[in-house]
Automatic annotation (TrEMBL), chain A:
GO terms for biological process: carbohydrate metabolic process. Transmembrane segments: none annotated. It comes from Sphingobacterium humi. It comes from the Bacteria. InterPro entries: GH28_Enzymes, Glyco_hydro_28, PbH1, Pectin_lyas_fold, Pectin_lyase_fold/virulence. Keywords: Glycosidase, Hydrolase, Signal. This is Glycoside hydrolase. One of its GO terms (molecular function) is polygalacturonase activity. It holds the Pfam family Glyco_hydro_28. SMART domains: PbH1. The keyword Signal applies. Residues 1-23 form the signal peptide.
Automatic annotation (TrEMBL), chain B:
Residues 1-20 form the signal peptide. This is Pectate lyase superfamily protein domain-containing protein. GO terms for molecular function: polygalacturonase activity. Belongs to the glycosyl hydrolase 28 family. GO terms for biological process: carbohydrate metabolic process. It comes from the Bacteria. Gene3D superfamilies: Single-stranded right-handed beta-helix, Pectin lyase-like. Keywords: Glycosidase, Hydrolase, Signal. SUPFAM superfamilies: Pectin lyase-like.
TrEMBL record, chain C:
Coiled coil: none annotated. Pfam families: Glyco_hydro_28. It comes from Sphingobacterium humi. This is Glycoside hydrolase. Belongs to the glycosyl hydrolase 28 family. Keywords: Glycosidase, Hydrolase, Signal. GO terms for molecular function: polygalacturonase activity.
């Protein structure tokens, strides 16, 4: 009997210890974390994460309430679960963050795996207040910062920053009001971001989501409203790249660009699928690829993009800014089933941080695909595309003619920050192509609502272009020559 | 406590007033969130800079909401590309002088510059209903037209330079010069369609005014001047139809 | 007293003012962000110049910087309407005539007021922090005191000066940056049914009445970090007089009802009745004449004082008198029930009263004049004071020998405070330099034995103790009244 008893107790013990090591749910209150919105919980939350990670992992559950905190570090096998009504509230005191380090974020993770942030709750960075308080310490000389445009250049915390993490799941949460980029995934692998909401117009550089040198990244079913670029792929490391990224069923609103590759693009982008997305109210481009830093862009599919009230339709650009001798390339971009509307007025009016009025004077800018001399953008397909422009350009306000001399006078601006407006006035109203090798227009409809002094398409140094079923609509301009070729050839 | 260099300079300034000193708007608590009304912060900055002998107040890219401002001698406003002074549309938020209303105004000052590629934005579409509203309710007796604020007005000032600044969306006249002299206007885009009679430039008893590379797109006349005003030079200045301004 | 009645009649009969205006009609926005300073000012100016009336704030949050009240204008804040002080320090004026910052000024106006169930919220803490930042940046000059911006560079909610016929009815005044509401040299003031929640920052008084005449404060609740109901006299040629305070409650981490500290002219003809004071770190009732002022004809009738650090402190000092002779006489305090706790009574206030003047056992109520300025004719009637007792001589001791009693310093130039003498030799009441002090039917209770007697009188020139009850635990036959250098004092048990 005593043997049986011993076995039973052994089994019980075993079960117990296994249980200890299994993922488990923990309530935040268990760790003394307070939901009153005023108690600073940084150390309590950190203690909870450390404890859960050290005890087999699990979920740290936050129920309805406001949880004030500074920087917290994620650990392996821990998921923060924010129930509906729970708000993880960033402290407005800049000193509660990892100031002065590159890890400056409300939620920070590095080199860990199997982590997540889930639930219908909210992460609110209180970014404007954080930035103002930071600015104050800078003006008093307590924190050093060189300032950019009279704003803190460094030291502003992101809301979420994950680096070199594997197997990350971000689901259903809302992320708001960051002082800097909202959510950054840098050199992470196997990331799923699904059904989240980003609402961040609190301060300068509020990118919505930045995917940097990641592999196997899925961004699905999400809504992003951001003061800076909404959905942004970047490549910071010349030896890395973004590979196998899927962006599907997302909606993006931005006072900058809707979906963007770059600006920093050292390594590059490969096998990127952007499917069934919506973009609106962007001051800059609905879709843009910029590779000014030597990055290689290949095999990109944009399918089913619907964009309206966007300042520019499409902007593909190779530059030579920080490329250090390496040559950037864009090769193999297919854009199909696309509808875009460009308005006459500023599309992002009403954003607190509107896109800046710049590069004036210029009339409405065309979609542009612009490589460099000897470094053409290659193999572009535009299939089933319709773009609606306001037209109404005024040559007395800004003028760029189509004579050889005028076209050649457009600067290359290889080293400049790549932006759809950087050349000021361009000579076409719908598409301006320069330094392109291999471009196919197939069933493309270009509509100007009012008269234009410019032709629809200007090609300069374009080889192997083919136009099938290209339809131009401009009021009162039947028979106008809408296609101007300069140093360019059409494929027969 | 360590303070920023320019604060030290600011305090040391009375000893050397010849130097043009740079000040950032943020040092005075100005914020560019487009929502915070910065009137008193900006005015305090202008007053302080002028009192210390002059200098440049720099605004960087962003929207600075403000009510009416009075410019002072020896103060340069530098609106860097992308910086916008946005007029607060409240009826009572404008400067009121001698029966006229202004967004940006200066009287009996000298050596004033507004430079940079930024914008002074009148928000006419929001201003107009507020005027109509006060008139309809009978709180003000004047006609709506006479209440439309002029975007930028100078009265009895000398040595004025506006270079590069875009003047947009004025409710009434865009730029009004009354008894001013030595005025340089150049590289400016002026665009305002809200008021059918709104003039681009309105000159009264002002002399030595020069215009260079101006593009004036307004509903009323590009340039209105009385007999006693003299324009010393006009160069490359046009209206939207390409006609030179006269 | 008759004058008071006529005054009340007058205030009740103030004619109904001309007309109601909706402040939103002047373009004022109640959205919590729009800065409405100029629009509200324009509205006030308009109403004042068009026959007067009420400027009505419907529910909403109205942000504003400094505005000036004008004659015949009432700001009426409906329930749900809040006037919010701007968070930008530049949005406040420091009026040169007043030389003090305020959100709402009135200077030399009449028939003005603020009424309704709404709130004026100065957002003082944030304002103070923002001002401090500008000081640190060198943009505002301030020498700082205790690492805080001086009180005159922080905005009050209300500053009315030299105004007549003021009505403040129903409103809530919240979170000022400095004092809360000051009425300076005004006449005919009615404060009725007001709620004051003033604990956001340093120097947050509840209400300050300075050199005013014909004042009624009633049915109001004051909760303040600094003194709750405070009468001051800044001007040696002016005086606070004809004042009625009734049916009020006061909570404070300083004093509940106070005359002073600045007391140049004085205080005359006061009736204070049915007052509840609680949670005060300092005195429930304190009258200070330290700057040459007069305190005369004061009736305090009906006070319930719970959890207060000290009950009564009457003090003549000689601080800024400049040769003027301070006088305090003809004071009646009756029908008082008071409980003094062992612990700090203002625990939990953000700005608790500072722990100071230690070591000392629980301080007694005190009447303390100066050798050549006696406090005269004070009657204390129907009073019960409950003390914790437990005065421990090993912690702090002041014995009853002539040397010890005479060794208590006069401190005539010091800031007057119940604790200023540190340990006093009585646990219930300490009297010094006074004339004709009469106790009738007064009960003192100590909940634990105290090494001190209940009452010590030093240099008391005439007076009486009749109907006295002393109830000290385990006191036995301890002598509870001790006289020193006193004469003509009658003691009847």
């Amino acid at each position: 009997m005593s043997a049986v008893k011993r076995i039973v107790s052994f089994v019980a013990l075993l079960a117990c210890s296994i249980g200890m090591l299994q993922a488990k749910d923990y309530n935040a209150s268990f760790f003394g974390i307070k939901s009153n919105g005023t108690t600073l919980n940084t150390t309590s939350i950190q203690r909870a994460i450390d404890y859960i990670s050290a005890n087999g992992g699990g979920k740290l559950k936050f129920y309805v309430g406001r949880y004030l905190t500074g920087t917290i570090h994620m650990k392996s096998n821990v998921t923060l679960h924010l129930e509906e009504g729970a708000v993880l509230l960033g402290s407005t005191n800049i000193n509660d963050y990892n100031v002065g380090t590159p890890n400056n974020a409300l939620i920070y993770a590095k080199g860990v795996e199997n982590i997540g942030i889930t639930g219908k709750g909210v992460i609110d960075g209180q970014g404007r207040e954080v930035a103002y308080n930071l600015m104050d310490l800078i003006h008093k000389g307590i924190i050093e910062d060189p300032l950019d445009y009279d704003r803190p250049r460094n030291n502003r915390p992101k809301a979420i920053y994950m680096r070199e993490c594997n197997n990350v799941t971000i689901k259903r949460i809302t992320v708001k009001n960051s002082a800097d980029w909202v959510s950054v995934y840098d050199q992470c692998k196997d990331v799923l971001v699904d059904s989240i909401t980003i609402d961040s117009k609190a301060f300068w550089n509020n990118d919505g989501i930045d995917i940097v040198d990641c592999q196997n990244f899925k961004l699905l079913n999400s809504y992003v409203d951001a003061a800076d670029d909404a959905i942004c792929l970047k490549s910071h490391d010349a030896s890395k790249l973004n590979e196998n990224v899927e962006i599907r069923n997302c909606t993006a609103r931005s006072s900058a660009n809707g979906i963007k590759f770059g600006t920093v693009s050292a390594g590059g982008y490969k096998n990127i699928r952007i499917i069934n997305n919506k973009v609106y109210d962007t001051f800059r481009s609905a879709f843009t690829i910029a590779t000014p830093d030597g990055g290689i862009v290949e095999n990109v599919l944009v399918d089913s993009l619907y964009a309206y009230n966007t300042g520019n339709a499409i902007y593909l650009r190779i530059g030579a800014r920080w490329n250090k001798g390496r040559k950037g390339a864009i090769k193999g971009v297919t854009m199909q089933n696309i509808y875009i509307e460009v308005p006459a007025e500023k599309p992002d009016a009403g954003y607190a941080y509107e896109g800046p009025v710049e590069d004036n004077p210029r009339n409405i800018s065309p979609a542009s695909i612009i490589g460099l001399k000897g470094q053409p953008i290659e193999d572009i397909i535009l299939r089933n595309v319709e773009i609606v422009y306001p037209g109404g350009s005024n040559p007395n306000y800004a003028f760029r003619g189509v004579s050889a001399k005028e076209l050649d006078a457009i600067p290359e601006m290889a080293e400049a920050y790549p932006e759809f407006s950087q050349f000021k006035e361009l000579p076409a109203w719908a598409f301006y192509l320069r330094h392109v090798d291999g471009i196919q227009f197939e069933n493309v409809k270009l509509i100007a609502k009012e008269k234009e002094y410019r032709p629809a398409i200007v090609m300069d140094d374009v080889k192997n272009a083919s136009l099938k079923q290209v339809d131009y609509q401009e009021p009162g301009k039947k028979g106008k020559k809408q296609l101007v070729l300069h140093n360019s050839t059409l494929k027969k | 406590m360590k303070k920023l260099l320019y604060i030290i300079i600011l305090l040391a300034l009375p000893f050397g007033k010849v130097f043009a000193v740079d000040y950032n708007a943020s040092a005075f608590g100005c914020v560019s969130d487009g929502q915070t009304n910065n009137t008193r912060s900006i005015q305090a900055a202008i007053d302080m800079i002028s009192a210390k002998g002059g200098g440049t107040l720099n605004f960087y890219v962003g929207r600075y909401l403000t009510g009416g401002l009075e410019l002072k001698s020896n103060v340069t406003i530098n609106l860097h590309e992308g910086a916008i002074l946005v007029a607060s549309p409240g009826f009572y938020d404008f400067i009121q002088k001698a029966g006229k209303r202004y967004f940006i105004y200066a009287e009996k000052q000298e050596n004033i510059k507004i430079i940079g590629k930024g914008v002074i934005l009148g928000q006419a579409a929001l201003v107009a209903p507020n005027i109509q509203n006060q008139v309809n309710k009978g709180f003000v007796k004047e006609s709506v037209d006479s209440l439309l604020p002029t975007l930028v007005g100078f009265s009895h000032c000398q040595q004025i330079t506006l270079d590069g600044i875009m003047l947009r969306d004025a409710s009434g006249d865009v730029l009004d010069l009354d008894h001013c002299s030595q005025v340089t206007l150049k590289n400016q885009l002026i665009k305002a369609h809200a008021s059918p009679k709104g003039a681009g430039l309105r000159l009264a008893a002002s002399t030595e005014v020069s215009l260079d590379s101006m593009y004036v797109d307004v509903a009323g006349k590009a340039l209105v001047k009385d007999a006693s005003s003299k324009i010393s030079r006009i160069n490359k200045s046009v209206t939207p139809n390409g006609k030179p301004i006269k | 007293m008759k004058r008071l009645l006529t005054l009340i009649m007058c205030l009740c009969c103030l004619q109904v003012l001309a007309k109601d205006y909706d402040v939103k009609d002047f373009g004022v926005e109640g959205n919590g962000t729009t800065l409405n300073t100029r629009s509200i000012q324009a509205a006030i100016d308009y109403v004042s110049t068009h026959g007067g009336g009420r400027l009505v704030f419907t529910p909403g949050n109205y942000v504003t910087g400094t505005i000036y009240m004008k004659s015949n204008v009432i700001l009426h804040l409906e329930r749900g309407a809040s006037i919010l002080g701007s968070l930008n320090p530049w949005d406040y004026d420091k009026d040169p005539y007043i030389n003090w910052k305020s959100l709402i000024y009135a200077i030399k106006q009449e028939n003005i007021g603020i009424t309704g169930q709404g709130i004026i919220n100065g957002r003082g803490f944030d304002n103070a922090m923002n001002t401090l930042n500008l000081v640190h940046r060198g943009l505002i000059e301030d020498e700082l005191k205790y690492d805080r911006v001086r009180e005159w560079n922080r905005p009050e909610n209300i500053y009315f000066r030299e105004c007549k016929n003021i009505k403040m009815i129903g409103i809530t005044l919240k979170d000022p940056g400095s004092w809360n509401q000051t009425y300076d040299q005004c006449q005919n003031i009615l404060v009725d049914s007001m709620t004051v929640d003033s604990k956001s920052y340093w120097n947050n008084d509840g209400i300050d009445i300075v050199d005013c005449k014909d004042v009624v404060i009633r049915n109001s609740h004051f909760d303040a970090a600094d003194d709750a109901i405070c009468f001051k006299s800044h001007d040696a040629n002016a005086i606070c007089e004809n004042v009625l305070v009734e049916n009020c409650t006061a909570r404070s981490s300083a004093s509940g009802l106070k005359f002073g500290t600045v007391s140049r002219g004085g205080f005359r003809n006061f009736v204070i009745r049915n007052l509840t004071v609680y949670d005060t770190y300092r005195s429930a009732i304190t009258f200070a004449a330290v700057d040459g002022g007069l305190v005369e004809n004061i009736l305090v009738d009906g006070v319930r004082s719970i959890n207060t650090g000290n009950v009564i402190f009457l003090r003549i000092g000689d601080r800024w008198s400049k040769g003027k002779r301070p006088v305090m006489r003809n004071i009646t305090i009756k029908n008082v029930y008071a409980e003094v706790p062992m612990d700090k009574p203002d625990k939990g206030y953000n700005y608790e009263g500072p722990i100071e003047d230690l070591p000392r056992n629980i301080s007694p109520a005190s009447i303390i004049g100066l050798p050549n300025h006696l406090i005269e004719n004070v009657t204390l009637e129907n009073i019960e004071m409950v003390y914790p007792g437990a005065g421990n001589p090993y912690y702090a001791k002041r014995g009853l020998t002539p040397e010890e009693l005479d060794g208590i310093p006069e401190m005539e130039a010091a800031y007057p405070e119940f604790s200023q003498f540190k340990e006093l030799p009585a646990w219930g009441f300490y009297i010094r330099h006074a004339k004709n002090i009469n106790f009738k039917n007064v009960t003192f209770r100590a909940m634990a034995p105290d090494y001190r007697p209940s009452i010590v009188a030093d240099d008391l020139q005439g007076g009486s103790f009749t109907g006295m009850t002393f109830d000290e635990v385990k006191a036995g036959n301890k002598e509870q009244i001790f006289l020193h250098n006193s004469k003509n004092v009658e003691i009847q048990k």
